[in-house]
Amino acid sequence: MSILVLADLHEGALAGATAHVVAAAKAIGGDIDVLVAGEGVQAAGEAAAKLEGVSRVRVADNAVYAYQLAEPMGALLVELAEGYTHVLASASTTGKNVLPRLAALKDVSQLSEVIGVESADTFLRPIYAGNAIATVKSDDALKVMTIRASAFDAVSNEGSATIEAVDTVIENAQSQFVKEELAQSDRPELGGAKVVISGGRGMGNGENFKLLEGIADKLGAAVGASRAAVDAGFVPNDMQVGQTGKIVAPDLYIAVGISGAIQHLAGMKDSKVIVAINKDDEAPIFQVADYGLVGDLFEILPELESKL
Amino acid sequence: MKVLVAVKRVIDYNVKIRVKADHSDVDLTNVKMAMNPFCEIAVEEAVRLKEKGVATEVVAVTIGPKASQEQLRTALALGADRAIQIETDERVESLAVAKLLAKVVEEEQPGLVILGKQAIDTDNNQTGQMLAALTNLPQATFASEVAVQGDKVNVTREVDGGLQTVALTLPAIVTTDLRLNEPRYAKLPDIMKAKKKPLEVKTPADYGVEVASRVSLLKVESPAERKGGIKVASVDELVDKLKNEAKVL
């Protein structure tokens, strides 16, 4: 078995999800290579070389791979996939954007959001927003898979892989990067945080999310939101936890003013401990919460912050 | 410019699903079906492009059993001009769907193809990207804004870190995210009119595409149920439980 992992990048640096995808590759077993493709990504390549279990890091550092646009990235993967039995990427917006192109051009199926490895060709994946878990077996010679990072524990940083440059350059005239507006935050990223505190429609407005931020800073937590809060314009889309937002599984998840729609539960119900704070004691969120506190969040949140 | 929209018939998003007793699949007998919510957003976007005078014709296409004509009629009631059903009772995977759509793109030569980013049954999130690769057209997935300007389309995408805008040379493939638009409801007169709009029925064989699946579904199970815990009476009790019982603080 020989596995290629496409590294996830965040503003040119290695994203935390990559260590989880390498863990999934280890569960499959075999030689593991990591591909780091982007512009100015030497440091990301060095970080990937430290991931335990990786034997070789291949670095494609060229302006054509800047922002990891789908067209050149897909074509690069098609060139490099030769000889591998599996190509894996995190089920991030980049992995989801790029990997199906590789699968289609190699004429193989893709397995999306894999959460468990049974064997080298049999995997578990959620369907119907996580309301059913499918065991699927792929008969394709090349397995192309996106991995749900939160379902695998990250590998350590004690590895020492060799690093080699990839010279392949894919010209791309079809698509062009225009701009990006990325959230700036000193808090941990949602996907990798040990503690997440999320607000819903009950927060009332975006300004009130400050009440969550104070607690987040004390706990070293990331701040999330329900779809209702994002749709209402309280906070930006990158904070959404749920079926179509980010899937998280922290040690502690605190849901504040969130009723607990299936859509939201799909994104957080694998958290180890769930706390729900809501004024409606009939809210469905209490059916999945380990600890529920019924009351006015505008009184509870300042008190909680002062007692942590 | 012609706009092609792909739609899928799926279980209604309000229905609580049940796994079959023999664990072979999810039970779909006598369950309410509907158009996939992301496909509704795709149809709405295409219709708005027509209303703005950017699109001249909107063609809706689906791949599925005879009953999926209902979803095409919905698309026609929402404003699509004509529809194509590629009829099959097989469980068609994303790759085969993309191959069929690629044939339709070759035949219809649309300036823009709009699809939902994923179907809420299989949650694959693959078809649009595969179609783009097979047709060698540029793609913009997870769109929250689509602006056609001359021979280009600027698409704002919802990505993990925030928003990204890309410019694609037309023809291009776009997949929709939740916040692209809010789909309208079909009005009764439009539903009546939709019954008379043209709906062409084809088969995968007409396009020479093999739809047999390459991934076997071995087993479908319900996820481990999470049990509700306890209600605490105060913030003090909550902090105490988190520190001393759950040991997460």
TrEMBL record, chain A:
Cofactors: FAD
GO MF term list: electron transfer activity; flavin adenine dinucleotide binding
Keyword flag Flavoprotein: yes
Annotated binding of FAD, by residue: 201, 226-227, 240-244, 257-264, 278
InterPro entries according to UniProt: DHS-like_NAD/FAD-binding_dom, ETF_a/b_N, ETF_a/FixB, ETF_alpha_N, ETF_asu_C, ETF_asu_C_CS, Rossmann-like_a/b/a_fold
Domain Electron transfer flavoprotein alpha/beta-subunit N-terminal: 3-181
Single GO BP term: fatty acid beta-oxidation using acyl-CoA dehydrogenase
Keywords: Electron transport, FAD, Flavoprotein, Transport
Cofactor binding comment, as recorded: Binds 1 FAD per dimer.
Biological role stated in the UniProt entry: The electron transfer flavoprotein serves as a specific electron acceptor for other dehydrogenases. It transfers the electrons to the main respiratory chain via ETF-ubiquinone oxidoreductase (ETF dehydrogenase).
Family from the record: Belongs to the ETF alpha-subunit/FixB family.
Full protein name: Electron transfer flavoprotein subunit alpha
Gene source species: Vreelandella songnenensis
UniProtKB/TrEMBL annotation, chain B:
GO biological process: carboxylic acid catabolic process
InterPro entries, alphabetized: ET-Flavoprotein_bsu_CS (IPR000049), ETF_a/b_N (IPR014730), ETF_b (IPR012255), ETF_beta_N (IPR033948), Rossmann-like_a/b/a_fold (IPR014729)
SMART domains: ETF
A molecular-function term among this protein's GO annotations: electron transfer activity
Stretches assigned to the Electron transfer flavoprotein alpha/beta-subunit N-terminal domain: 23-211
Needed co-factor(s): AMP
Keywords, in A-Z order: Electron transport, Transport
Record function comment: The electron transfer flavoprotein serves as a specific electron acceptor for other dehydrogenases. It transfers the electrons to the main respiratory chain via ETF-ubiquinone oxidoreductase (ETF dehydrogenase).
Quaternary data: Heterodimer of an alpha and a beta subunit.
Similarity-based family: Belongs to the ETF beta-subunit/FixA family.
Name of protein: Electron transfer flavoprotein subunit beta
Annotated source species: Vreelandella songnenensis
